[in-house]
Design a protein that fits this description.
Shape: globular
Radius of gyration: 17 Å
Strand order of the largest sheet: 3-2-1-4-5-6-7
Number of domains: 1
CATH architecture: 3-Layer(aba) Sandwich
Largest sheet: 7 strands, parallel
CATH class: Alpha Beta
Helix content: 40-55%
Structural class: alpha/beta
Order of helices and strands: EHEHEHEHEHEHHHE
Oligomer: single chain
Number of strands: 7
CATH topology: Rossmann fold
């Protein structure tokens, strides 16, 4: 192994939810390592992210897509293949957390969360893995959560979906690793994103959360780079089916 094993210069990546939050941080990380990055989001809000990708010297493109629509996913992949010829890396970063109390939670809110956070990663992985298997190389990264292991207030469907993501990662790895497609998950601690912005508006709460980590701080964008590039590169040749908790020791305390 040498430093070139960490390079993504020849790789094509697709990052759902890549226009903001953890997805954006991962998209930028992969771009900095040399990947051509496609960003998919339900909202047409990726202009700034694309500018940042190009500022890093990497090409990037944006597709607006509903990740809960099979037809939309198939059309998206068809377009990417027609332009780039392949997808080497898939990051299932799209997600929602509606933060509704147990007593007020509706079935519609439950289903929407499961559809975006759990069903979409399964379906997109199943579709994308076909070409990965043909080439004998692929990397799939799911986004898990601290709530894959523990519960927080007002997050029943989110926690259930992220617990499912952890097991989905194992199941996909079992199915596809023998074909050269390694599947892992990253479970971030508290990073400042659109999903956690309400927490960051409460300075005492966010300071208390930092105090529960072993490093006495919450996550920063720079913390995403190393693990993202490693898991998606040739440097990782034997880790699959795992969920890596990127949380400063929060979950280990």
């Amino acid at each position: 192994m040498n430093l070139s094993d960490f390079s993504l210069n020849t790789k094509v990546a697709l990052v759902t939810g890549g226009s903001s939050g953890i997805g954006k941080m991962m998209a930028l990380s992969l771009a900095r390592a040399g990947a051509y990055v496609w960003i998919a989001s339900s909202r047409d809000n990726a202009d700034e992210t694309i500018k940042e990708l190009k500022a890093e010297g990497s090409e990037g493109a944006f597709l607006q897509v509903d990740v809960t629509s099979t037809d939309a996913l198939e059309k998206m992949l068809s377009h990417i293949y027609s332009v780039s010829g392949k997808i080497d890396i898939l990051v299932n970063g799209a997600g929602i957390n509606l933060r509704t109390s147990a007593d007020e939670l509706t079935l519609e809110q439950w289903q929407k969360t499961i559809d975006i956070n759990l069903t979409a990663p399964y379906q997109l992985s199943q579709l994308a893995v076909k070409k990965m298997k043909e080439s004998g190389w692929g990397r799939i990264i799911n986004i898990a959560s601290l709530q894959s292991l523990r519960a927080f207030d007002n997050s029943i469907p989110y926690g259930a979906s992220k617990g499912g993501v952890m097991q989905l990662t194992r199941a996909l790895a079992q199915a596809y690793s023998k074909d050269g497609v390694l599947v892992n998950a990253i479970a971030p601690g508290f990073f400042r994103t659109n999903l956690t912005e309400s927490l960051y508006q409460d300075s005492k709460k966010i300071k208390d959360l930092a105090g529960k980590t072993m490093m006495n701080r919450n996550g920063e964008e720079k913390d995403i780079f190393g693990i993202s590039v490693f898991l998606c590169s040739d440097a990782n040749s034997y880790i699959t089916g795992q969920t890596i908790f990127l949380d400063g020791g929060f979950s280990a305390g």
